[in-house]
Design a protein that fits this description.
The chain contains 10 helices and 5 strands. The protein has about 220 residues and is of the alpha/beta class. It has a single domain, classed as 3-Layer(aba) Sandwich (Rossmann fold), CATH 3.40.50.1110. A 5-stranded parallel β-sheet has the order 2-1-3-4-5, sandwiched between helices. It starts with a helix and ends with a helix.
Length: about 220
């Protein structure tokens, strides 16, 4: 009898845990963030989706007219790493049926927002997003990271610029090998010292409106 009660208690506990994991509070990839907008867009495919983290999130907030005027959907979520973007890629990109997807990703992986991840696995996530797009007839467009000299919320990472440059080199190499476009944000955002220009980014990572205007010109050129 005691064994049966223990087993029942265990099963009920596991069931409760499973149920909790399905609630919005445990929406690790944040599928819910753009769910309503994705539904509203049904049958109205955008020209492009910009998939990313806080850089894209802030872009949509600071210059919504860019997205509206050019029929581009912004799908950025602050703090996200490439693993989270890959998980929600089907819902926030594939299901919208855009012609292009511009992938702006990687700095939060370097910042270890979700714990340590190797450069090889960061690239694996980026490559998987590209492959998932291509198999659904969506043209992936890659971007490089800004040359941030530091990561303000992770002061313990003292080699941020070296990691950025290394990952950027791999992004460029993958784009060349795969015949993909790569919008090289690194030189566009750099100052004379080779780090992100202070007029274009408030903290080396998050653009000002002037910085976003630089990105917009490069994106539109790539999409044309």
């Amino acid at each position: 009898m005691k064994k049966a009660i223990f087993t029942l208690t265990l099963l009920l506990g596991l069931s409760a845990m499973a149920g909790a994991q399905e609630t919005p509070e445990h929406d690790w990839a944040q599928f819910g963030r753009y769910s309503a907008d994705n539904t509203q867009r049904a049958g109205k495919a955008p020209v492009a989706v910009i998939m990313g983290d806080s850089i894209t999130d802030g872009w949509l907030q600071q210059d919504p007219a860019f997205f509206e005027d050019n029929n581009i959907a912004g799908r950025g979520i602050s703090g996200q790493v490439t693993s989270q973007m890959l998980v929600r890629f089907r819902r926030d990109v594939v299901d919208l049926h855009p012609r292009y997807v511009v992938i702006v990703a990687g700095i939060n992986d370097i910042a270890r927002n979700n714990g340590y991840i190797s450069e090889e696995n960061i690239m694996g996530n980026i490559e998987s997003m590209c492959e998932l797009a291509a198999v659904h007839g969506i043209v992936p467009v890659l971007t490089t990271l800004f040359p941030a000299g530091k990561i303000g919320w992770r002061p313990g990472i003292t080699d941020a610029l070296e990691q950025v440059k290394s990952l950027n080199g791999k992004i460029r190499a993958y784009a060349r090998a795969s015949g993909l476009q790569c919008i090289d944000f690194e030189p566009l955002m750099a100052d004379e010292n080779g780090i992100t220009h202070s007029d274009l980014c408030t903290d080396g990572i998050h653009p000002t409106l002037e910085g976003y205007k630089v990105l917009e010109e490069a994106v539109l050129k790539a999409l044309k």
